[in-house]
Amino acid sequence: MPTAAPSTMHSLKDLLVEQLHELHASESHSQAVLARLASAASSPKLVEALRGHLDETKQHVARVERVFGEIGAKPKRLETHGSKGILEDCAEIASRSKIDPHVRDAAIIAAVQRLEHDEMAGYGCARTWAMLLGHTASASELLKTLTEERRFDESLSKIAETLNKAALEPAGSTR
């Protein structure tokens, strides 16, 4: 949960707001990290996928902000332990210079997929709670983002099929 003064959670709406804060923080922080990962990646397909998702991520932030508006809450700038740790792992991978490019690409995909799976879980829960609370427009917005996150995860898996094979034999290996 977010690193802020503990909030009281007395209702499902409180829980929804808390989840939206986490999603907003994750998406906001992801923007800078995705740009770094795209610069560090060597596969043109991976670079294209990361840059495309960076554009989507900007839309995700705007959607979460619209959802806050519909439910009568405001986003707070918070850091979450989960997404912060994953994003730090991603940034660390991007900064490694003495790593085979195929291996780095495989590591980037693995780290980004961990982040995406965390976000998919968050969007799925938030969508369900919004629906239960009668916020159908918000549920629809959250479903759009959940669908885009799933699609991105699937595209990373397809890219990984090729990249992981290339990472089996590091460059310059004499096997």
Query: Mean pLDDT, rounded to whole units?
Result: 87
CATH architecture: Up-down Bundle
SS strand fraction: under 5%
Order of helices and strands: HHHHH
The CATH superfamily is identified as Ferritin, core subunit, four-helix bundle
Q: How many domains?
A: 1
Number of strands: 0
If you compute it from the alpha carbons, what radius of gyration comes out, rounded to the nearest whole angstrom?
18 Å
Low-confidence stretches: 1-6
What is the highest CATH level, the class?
Mainly Alpha
Content-based structural category: mainly alpha
CATH topology: Ferritin
Helix coverage percent of residues? Answer: over 70%
Instruction: Report, as a whole number of angstroms, the end-to-end distance.
Output: 47 Å
The major pleated sheet works out as: none
Give an overview in words.
This protein is mostly helical and 175 residues long. The protein has a single domain, classed as Up-down Bundle (Ferritin), CATH 1.20.1260. The chain contains five helices and no strands. It has helices at 12-40, 44-71, 81-95, 101-132, 136-168. Helix 1 packs parallel to helix 3 and helix 4 (101-132) packs antiparallel against helix 5.
Question: What are the key terms here?
Answer:
single chain; 175 residues; mainly alpha; Ferritin; 5 helices; elongated; disordered N terminus
Could you write a compact summary of the structure shown?
The protein is built from 5 helices and no strands. With 175 residues, it is mainly alpha-helical.
